[in-house]
Write a structure and sequence with these properties.
Pathway: Amino-acid biosynthesis; L-tyrosine biosynthesis; (4-hydroxyphenyl)pyruvate from prephenate (NAD(+) route): step 1/1. The protein has helices at 15-27, 40-48, 59-63, 78-85, 103-109, 155-167, 177-204, 211-215, 219-227, 232-241, 243-266, 269-288; strands spanning 5-11, 30-36, 54-56, 68-71, 94-97, 118-124, 145-149, 171-175. It is of the alpha/beta class and 304 residues long. 37% of the residues are buried. The structure holds 1,4-dihydronicotinamide adenine dinucleotide and 3-(4-hydroxy-phenyl)pyruvic acid (ENO).
């Protein structure tokens, strides 16, 4: 595939930015990739791993002359980063982000985008529990979806960004921000909170913790412990910024959990059997539609 942007600036050099850099290099999609991170150590690793051709100490310096700027910091840091780069963005440039929440990021970033610069929010539905400049790998997005948010942007910059994501291996869908936040509350954010809770419960129950948790854990609980090892700052910001949708889904989850609890207490085997039959059909529908590879959802990283 041919070069789509002359100069891509990555703001934040962790798992997602690092994977994007490697995936762009794999397919020759960018003339030059530059980046910035707060710590000198992260910048050094990014250079040593060949993620960036050049690194800068500040985001303001990194975006100068870039025709694509990618905000790849935790959701709660998007506003301050956008405020810093706003005055330094080149006319005609596209700014995108990879945050796990969309409405709050749009509210945080859009006011800082000057006229003549295009903002297209995005979210790759791919990741791992690892973070930092060592965590990225070129194949992270292969066969995964990236969602782009169309807030009335022109067709050409949107199509160019979609082409970039396809070149990095992803499928691309376009949707609106509120729908994104509700879908992700169901498929990613609430499941993460449930995993955090379950691992917390096992930890509280010290009789079964320590070595037993890992030694005797079946696949389901092992997946919970992997997910509960995800970055605390990133996930704190996800919940604080997708509050309404997550609370809505968790409210429904709690109601269903109570119904299942009652079925267990009253010995209502028919209810349990019917419920599990319905959920099994959902899983089989996903597999038949070819949307599951057999790998843990999103978990494409090296196994611990
Ligand atoms: N980890 C995952 O599985 C996925 C993460 N995302 C989203 O991508 C974004 C980046 O996540 P990762 O790459 O996983 O994180 P990461 O922790 O690996 O990297 C984040 C980078 O942002 C920098 N950073 C943190 N706070 C900052 C601040 N206040 N100002 C400037 N820079 C700051 C860090 O130093 C680091 O370079 C997040 O918004 C997250 O919601 C999206 C899809 C998957
Ligand atoms: O590691 C996992 O299981 C994930 O769920 C990765 C992930 C985390 C956050 C996202 O916004 C998208 C994907």
């Amino acid at each position: 595939m041919s070069q789509l942007y002359d100069r891509v600036a990555l703001i934040g050099l962790g798992l997602i930015a690092g994977s994007m850099a490697l995936a762009m290099k794999r397919a020759g999609l960018a003339g030059e990739i530059v980046g910035t991170a707060r710590s000198g150590e992260t910048r050094d690793i990014a250079l040593a791993r060949g993620l960036c051709d050049q690194v800068f100490d500040t985001a303001a310096d990194a975006v100068a002359g870039a025709d694509l700027v990618v905000l790849a910091v935790p959701v709660g840091a998007m506003a301050s980063v956008a405020a810093e780069i706003g005055p330094h963005l080149q006319a005609g440039a596209t700014v995108t982000d990879v945050g796990s929440v969309k409405r709050a990021v749009i509210d945080a970033v859009a006011p800082h985008i000057p006229d003549g610069v295009i903002f297209i929010p995005g979210h790759p539905l791919a990741g791992t529990e690892q973070s930092g400049p060592d965590a990225g790998f070129a194949e992270l997005f292969d066969g995964r979806y990236t969602l782009l948010i169309d807030e009335g942007v022109e067709a050409e910059p949107l199509e160019r960004l979609a082409t970039l994501w396809r070149g990095m291996g992803a499928h691309v869908d376009v949707m609106d921000a509120d729908h994104h936040d509700l879908v992700l509350a169901v498929t990613s954010h609430s499941p993460h909170l449930i995993a955090y809770t379950m691992v917390g419960v096992a930890d509280d129950l010290s009789r079964v913790t320590d070595s037993e948790v890992i030694k005797y854990s079946a696949a389901g609980f092992r997946d919970f412990t992997r997910i509960a090892a995800s970055d605390p700052v990133m996930w704190r910001d996800v919940f604080l910024n997708n509050k309404d949708a997550t609370l809505e889904i968790l409210g429904r989850f709690t109601e269903e959990l109570f119904a299942l609890q009652r079925a267990i207490r009253t010995g209502d085997g028919d209810m349990l059997h019917d419920y599990f039959t319905r959920t099994r059909a959902i899983r089989r529908g996903i597999v038949e539609a070819g949307q599951d590879t057999g790998a843990p959802d999103f978990g494409r990283g090296p196994k611990p």
